[in-house]
Amino acid sequence: MIDTLSRAASALLPARTALAFAEGGGLWTDVPLFPESASTTAGRVDALYFYLIGITIFFSTAIFLCLFVFAVKYRRRSESERPKRIAERIGVEVFWTAVPLAIALSIFGWGTKLYIDESLPPADALDVYVVGRQWMWQVQHSEGRREINELHVPMGRPVKLTMTSEDVIHSFYVPAFRVKRDAVPGRYSTEWFQATKPGRYHLFCAEYCGTKHSAMIGWVTVMTPADYQRWLTSGTELPVGAEGERLFGRLACGTCHGPESTDRGPALAGLFGSVRRLQNGRSVIADESYIRESILDPNAKLLAGYPAVMPTYRGQISEPELLLILAYLKSLDVETLAGGAPK
Ligand code: CUA
What we know:
- This protein is an alpha+beta fold.
- The chain has nine helices and twelve strands.
- The strands form three sheets. It has a five-stranded mixed β-sheet, with helices on one face. It has a five-stranded mixed β-sheet with strand order 4-10-9-6-7. Strands 11-12 form a two-stranded antiparallel ribbon.
- The structure holds dinuclear copper ion (CUA).
- Dinuclear copper ion (CUA) binds next to loops.
- Residues 132, 135, 170, 205, 207-209, 213, 216 line the site of dinuclear copper ion.
């Protein structure tokens, strides 16, 4: 069956593509109708897409068929002809309201499920930090390696990207993985995927971001876990947590946020992910965005029991550096430190 299809397609397609078929390429990889599928979500996104196409084709065909049949069957045959009065039929009304509603809701339900699954990274995902700027992607791996317009990832393991931008909105788009999410200045967004096939895949910026937007492209390299490990350890950079600790020292954050809590600022061990009580009586979870805000705009959310004495670090710390500090704070586990539970 596939053979017959391939042969039929080869007869119809230009020589280069036909050659690819002869060399054993598949239907979907050689005709640039669909990008390659190289992640666990790719097939699921395609399935929903085919469902939408199927519905569209079915109804377009049905509507045009009815149009032609009715135009012929119910055409006016004489000048004096008057149409018969048609009685309302509630059953028909209910039918053609309920069926489209059910179809629309099935699309909504399916799409929502997929969106939620694509939005929630698994807990064991590998952390990678991405900063977009005009016009490049800066990538920072937890273990230290840094890259520009390149992203190396292991196969078969979920990878979570924590992204932000230094200037305007960009969008991190890997068609082969069927993932795309905006990198927005002033906040963190996340994107995750699990690659299923080693290879090199296109990476695009999918949000118009200035004159060289179209040059903001790169490659995602998917490697076997062993190759990835080798690649990861071949760099000379420090792990991000250690880089962050060094920066923490250079900015003298420890003066107020030492291992022991001082009266000027709280100790930071176990901070990440904990619930913080604020002076205004509210509580917040210390996530990436909260920590970022507290460094750049310390008075935005004042912690209960501490004075408003922290200066802003806006202008003194770049987005990649903020991510280093974040990685350092994430690495400060309560159990590994004598600092005790967070205040
Ligand atoms: Cu960055 Cu378009």
